[in-house]
Amino acid sequence: MKKKKNVLRCLGSSIALTATVGLSTLSAQQAEAATSSGMLSPVTPKDVVYQIITDRFVDGDTSNNIPTGSSASLFDDPDQDGLGNGDDLKLYQGGDWQGIIDKISYLKNMGVTAVWISAPYENRDTPIYDYQQSGGYDLWTSFHGYHVRNYFATNKHFGLMQDFEALRDALHANGIKLIIDFVSNHTSRGTNPTSGNSPEDGKLYEPDKDSNGDYVFDSNGNPVDYNSDGNVENLLADPNYDINGWFHNLGDRGSDDTQFGYRFKDLGSLSDFSTENAAVVEHLEKAATFWKSKGVDGFRHDATLHMSPSFAKGFKDAIDSASGGPLTHFGEFFIGRPDPKYDEYQSFPDRTGINNLDFEYFRASTNAFGYFSETMSAFGQMLIATSADYEYENQAVTFLDNHDVTRFRYIQPNDKPYHAALATLLTARGTPNIYYGTEQYLTSADSSDISGRVFMERETSFDQTTTAYKIIQALSALRRQNEAVAYGETAILYSSDDVLVFKRQFYDKQVIVAVNRQPDLSFTVPAINTTLPAGSYDDVLNGLLYGDSMTVNNGKIGSFTLAGGEVSVWSYNPDLGTAIPRIGDVVSTMGRAGNTVYIYGTGLGGTVTVKFDSTAATVVSNSDTMIEAIVPNVSAGARQITVTKGTNVSNQFRYEVLSDDKNQVIFKVNATTSWGENIYIVGDIPELGSWDTSKAVGPFHTPNYPEWFLPVSVPKNTTIQYKFIKKDSSGNVTWEGGNNRSITSPSSSTGTLDTSVLTWQ
Length: 761
Prior knowledge:
EC number: 3.2.1.1
Signal peptide: 1-33
CATH topology of the largest domain: TIM Barrel
Helix content: 10-25%
Family: Belongs to the glycosyl hydrolase 13 family.
Pfam families: Alpha-amylase, CBM_20, TIG
Shape: globular
Number of domains: 4
GO biological process, one term: carbohydrate metabolic process
Low-confidence stretches: 1-32
Radius of gyration: 26 Å
């Protein structure tokens, strides 16, 4: 074997952190977001996220447009000038990490404080043929990043590892956080549904290993041919020869809308990982912590609707428990309106610690501002209803559009309601996400998601004077300056079919937003009661959307008229002082003893005590706006965080304490049920409801009735007492008889355990 020089080894689950950005390089505003490690993680509701499909933004390095080993047929360059034409959006266009670096000043000036990019790791890089009944075919590529091939190598179309690290460093140096897309649900298409489901791909690879079983990389962090076999990677799993059970192999979900179908069958024929397999869990956790070690600030998890919550909970916990503290996590739980999966959607963040892309907000906003199929009153009702339904409503990532839906500009070509929707997004509850090009009015040729994935470099001059750009700029600044927008509660002050006046309030801080969606009609708003002090309040947008100042007298906002398309934003931002601590947000909202937790708000500096219920936590560092603390050794379950300063005690914030590192037990039982009944499990640990049937875990899946099964997240190496119960649609409970059942969970943090098929007692 040849000796390799300058190699770095990935030590399984222990991966060295890359260099961090020192606090001395950050402005005061940027330093507010920095942790004790110097990183900018995590994303908070004070941020404005900008989503970039990496291949569709800017081509900053033409040398990687057709990487070595890649076919020229995958690149959209019919005139052979080496540049993507932006015409065939199924092919690569040339966007890369250098292109994002080149536009950092554009992003920063706009007020962007976090960037969400496509999955950075290697994807399938062969043609994807969709054969047509007419005899031809469409050729697709994996430009989007959702067809993983090797988690430990970069997508060469975007750059090498040193290029990724250059992007990270450039963003961080400018106070911009980095979120990566991450897919743990599937690889690429294992069979081709357009050719009789013939075998296609879906293969997963890994780098060469040394004699200790550790991955080997060169000094820049790229895989090397360590074993001198001519390859820098090795086949790990193949859905068409799945001897180790890495995939579910149950075929495409198709029209199966059962919970089992969503979680265990293929999404669009993409090879679905069996996350009940300990080897799969170990590999995915290693991959995610590898990218965390590269200094990212957050994960956007793909297809959380299709993921087992038991896996997702342990997966998120493994990432946050690795060196570097908790990150921001949000995922794509794709639902419609109305949707029978809504209850599962709204509770997913509470059950897993991974928040949602806010599809409820998206649907309501699309209908109210785009199609005009719902009233503004209905939109306001959605804000109130979801604020009540979501435990952490300001962490839900709101959006007008993204890569999976129609471009909002295609739906709404009129500037006035378009601007009104954008201004509302940036002032409403949640953490706003801007799809790349929204500020340049990018649209699409049709209503499909692929048509919306346009090549921005070909479509726009990156004009920093557009009205949409200025809206984002002004309201991003307001979101950072007035905690009412980031942390506040929502109240509707007035609504009608076309007008909405809403308030965001965090203690004495307030922001009031008045919106008229109609472009050509004016409406008069009657006098509104208010707690604002008497005085005149200027429009934060300075008339950009035809707004004006307003006056408060005797506890009322006087009657006013909203012109067509008018949006007025009025801010009251008093100094809350430093004596009284007030909590606005906490990241993460779930973890175990010894984990780091970040507490955001005001009045958090000086001598403070952080408690989880009545148990004090260790405070690592603090400032007036952030506390970094360690979760104390406290009983598992929901705990209330408070901050005490002198005799002043803050408001409470819910935090879910886990009993230990999580793994999975797949419980199975044979049980007959009456129509409307489902099987659940309840037991003596918090993860099983502590014998409280209202907190029982389920319902179980039953693809082969009367057998039922469910993967459940439990603490490792723990003996658990439990029983199965039946629940009907009215919540009536039937307990099984006999003694409590008992099982001991696996000792490994990534372990899984299948029970035998037990018989209902």
